[in-house]
Amino acid sequence: MDTKLRRKHIVDLGMDIVRNRASYLLVLPAMIYTFIFGYMTYPYMLVAFQRFNYKKGIFNGEWVGFHNFEFFFRSNKAFTITFNTIFLNVLFIVFGTLTALAISLVLNELRKKLFLKLSQSVMLFPHFISWIVISYVLYAFFSMDMGIINQILNKLGLPSVNWYTEPTVWPVILTLMHVWKGAGMSAVIYLATITGIDDTLYEAAQIDGANRWQMCLRITIPLMMPTVIILTLLSIGKIMYGDFGMIYALVGDNGTLYQTTDIIDTYVFRSLRQVGDPSEAMAVGLFQSAVGFVLVFGTNLLTRKYFRDGALY
Amino acid sequence: MRRGTLSQTIMYAGITIYSLICLLPMLLVLMISITDEDSILRNGYSLFPEDFSLLAYKLIFTGGSQALHSYMITIVVTLVGTVLAVTITAMAGYTLSNKSVRYRNLLALYFFITMIFTAGIVPWYLMNRALGLTNNILALIIPSLLFSPFNLFLVRNFMSGIPDSLRESATIDGANDLTIAFRIFLPLSMPVLATIALFYGLDYWNNWWNAIMLIDNRDLYPLQFMLLQLKSEISMINEMTMIAGADDYTLPSESVKMATAIVTIGPIVFLYPYLQKYFVKGLVIGSVKG
């Protein structure tokens, strides 16, 4: 862009601001907020390359190059937390999507209005509850002395299990809780997609003698696929980001479970708030963002290739 | 037709079972909260308690208890935060949908960029420290929660659907931009404003991220964070028991914990019909528009 054109743009912008000064005034609070908590936070990412000291701040910090990254990748933690983050997310995506799909397809076959309304209300409920409240629900089931699960085990003549010291079962428990909280909401969204399918397709199929099962298999499922694939690709793009709120509320600082439950986000949190090393925390965070960035663009590229309407940008 | 009825029955049964799976765990927590402590210690948690007791709720709602204090903090933060957040978002949404603003798409890009590129929690934390947003009530209101570009785009999309001729005729009648925004566009946008009010309100109510990151002072613990601490801190329950002058009872720690969890979701249950209606509507719009 040559300088003349740029000047014209700036003049235009100035005139637009003067003419619509009230409108620009209305957007100002949101702009200031976004500037401070969005744009102004970017320079702080540089602390990943420093030995950060709260007193000195970011501008007088001591530069250490890639030392913080080296420290992280040399530790045995790097592999564990990356693996856990991806592994748990894969479990969540697979089981969450399948459960939600199954529920929405079944709901679509049911006709009693009141039943549909009530069951959907109940299914949505866990979505609105915080993970902290859910951690109490979990405890009611898995507590060593008083939990429902151990009571059942005892009734069957089996010994109690101390679930909170058994890391191997936690991927299962976490997946169950994730599905429990979110599947109802996803099912309702999928159901909205199904309701949007053109009725004439079903009428035509009916005339051709198709039964409900065939209609579900040949019309509903294929037409839902775009939505399912888009939502799944979106989740794959975010696969490097764990749900801190969930993991921290359910597992907390229970170190015995870290080998299967510790994810990048909880690790970063501990480095920052408990170890008190913002530089290492930022280095791990940058690693997460970099891989996450590649994944978002990768999945978007795939979407655009196979499925033009689904691409995000 | 026989087979059809059978499969229908199976499907109704399946959905009923799934609904029970969603509901019963919450019911269990409720029942534990009204079970007598001795009965819990004797029999473990149960959906069908032997002895009932409302002592836990009495302790929570006794003046001066940490639970009651945190409840107040959360209510204030949620109310103030939601009102401010909706105001900021609604005003910005008006500008972004105002077709006489030539650079509105540039403005939209300005907000969109921060939605896609986030610096992460460390810069977020350091920025809040630098601004002095630690250990005060503003730290629970301002960071993260006060404005969300996602909600801004919801409002913009809704307002873009309002016919522009309304603006034109109002301008001819001599109304200025502020009048048009506050007297015409915002009242017409009530459905979407109700939706984002619920989004913001729920975020504030369920938030504990700000507390765990920025608050060390117990007097400022919001409800959710207090509930998290309650899991490990028996001393808080001890304190409640002492304040209520109930020290001749068994320390009702199990039922108090569960009762606090129930109290925490109280307003959500209360507002549930509205919540469900607007939330699902907003989510469906959001997921379709990206």
TrEMBL record, chain B:
- One GO term (biological process): transmembrane transport
The regions listed as transmembrane in this protein's record are: 12-34, 71-94, 106-125, 137-159, 180-200, 258-275
PROSITE patterns linked to this entry: ABC_TM1 (PS50928)
Keywords in UniProt for this one?
Answer: Cell membrane, Membrane, Transmembrane, Transmembrane helix, Transport
Location of the ABC transmembrane type-1 domain: 71-275
Compartment(s) where it occurs, according to its Swiss-Prot or TrEMBL record? Cell membrane
**GO cellular component annotations, sorted alphabetically?**
plasma membrane
Q: Which residues form a coiled coil?
A: none
Keyword Transmembrane annotated: yes
**What's a Pfam family this protein contains?**
BPD_transp_1
Q: Does the keyword Cell division apply?
A: no
Q: How does it sit in the membrane?
A: Multi-pass membrane protein
* Highest taxon above the source species: Bacteria
Q: Which family does the similarity line name?
A: Belongs to the binding-protein-dependent transport system permease family.
Please identify the protein, giving its name as recorded: Carbohydrate ABC transporter permease
Q: Which organism is it from?
A: Cohnella fermenti
